[in-house]
Design goal:
By secondary structure, this protein is mainly beta. Helices cover 0% and strands 53% of the residues.
Length: 77
Amino acid sequence: MSITVTGKIERRQLGMGTWALISDEGVTYEILKGADKELLKAGQKAKVTGQVREDIMTIAMIGPVLEVKSFEVLSSD
């Protein structure tokens, strides 16, 4: 199922590190490895469309894993 989430990008220092999208509603999504580097900038706000992957487990386990299909940067810090 495809979802669209607006929120802030964060770098989490768990294990080897991971990227997260903190939605405006307060839900933390772990961004699946391999996402576009233009998205992965801590502090920027983005609108992300993707798929929550329930068939994947990660070491960080910070929230649902979001496979990014497309995104729009809304603002950069």
